[in-house]
Amino acid sequence: MMKCPPRILANLIFVSRPLQAKYMYHPTSRSQAKDCPGFAVSTDSRMATKVDQVSEKLRSALARCNEDRSQKILSPDLVRGLLMPPSIHEESCDEGCYDECLGIVGLPRRPYHNELAKRMLFLTDSTDPLLSAEDMAMSELPTTKNIHLPTIPDIFTEASCLEWLTNVGDEGILRLLGLRNTVGTEAGLLPPDWAELLAASRLPHRDLSPPHDSLTVAGRARCKHAHRGSQDSFFGEVTGGTREKNEAAESVLDKILREAAWINIHKSTGIEEIVLEVRVAAGYGARWTAGWSTTPVKPTDVFFRGFLEPQQVDGHENRWRH
User: Fold this and answer.
1) The model's pTM
2) Same domain membership, residue 150 and residue 22
3) What distance in Å separates the CA atoms of residue 171 and residue 179, rounded to the nearest whole number?
4) Does a structural domain hold residue 315?
5) What are the pLDDT digits (tens) for 225-278?
6) Which residues, other chains included, contact 31 with Cβ-Cβ below 8 Å and sequence gap of 6+?
7) Are 51 and 156 contacting, i.e. CB atoms less than 8 angstroms apart?
């Protein structure tokens, strides 16, 4: 896999272009950016070491916050969420997988303090980590636009980590993790992990069908959406048997999770449960419902609810074709 050149990485920022992600950097060709799947960033052993060092300092600072809550640096629930252990995926990641996971977009992976370390190292003070809501035909409430990122030497002390956590607060942490703030957003919630989301998408769409004989809920949903994204082939063509259709659906979901540019946990019209909505820069996405009543950082009862089309004013009239 081709890596993003360092000169691209140093100046990476999203700028306006309807329904697409475009890069602003001191120019190299746009084709070079396209060679970076999921906007993954270049890494080597030195960068991996820096990530590990910053992650460990953040973990130590968060552990201090968890032990001494009188400091009130972050909300206790968020501190617990940032300290949660990795899911099955991260525990089994080899070096190659780590390289692919390292990026500034995508649904964040546990442990979140490690995700924060990656993003802190790859962004600069002038960089908004998120694609503009307007670029995706979405709307967002005013929020922290410029997250203060400490210089690399300063972050290697626990005291500087505590100071940074104090300055950035809950809102800045959630924004750096990619979570949006809209009218219906349920503030302070963290998403289910990748393993839970994918497991929910693999359930058979008919309860009485043997799993190996049935389309999964995601497989069936993709069959319904494929013709709508035919212009840019986001969902691909519907071919093959049940197994091929299920695998194709999971491939689409993997792309959505890796390249997520819009993540919102919110209340949705017509759905009682809270919804996790994940979209790529082109506007396609998927959504799940889950329960956060027990804890805001570890949801339960995760259900896949279907794929999403880009926002369109005349979507119904066009039958959501793109």
Assistant:
1) 0.79
2) yes
3) 9
4) no
5) 877 655 678 898 888 999 999 999 999 999 999 999 999 999 987 778 999 999
6) none
7) no
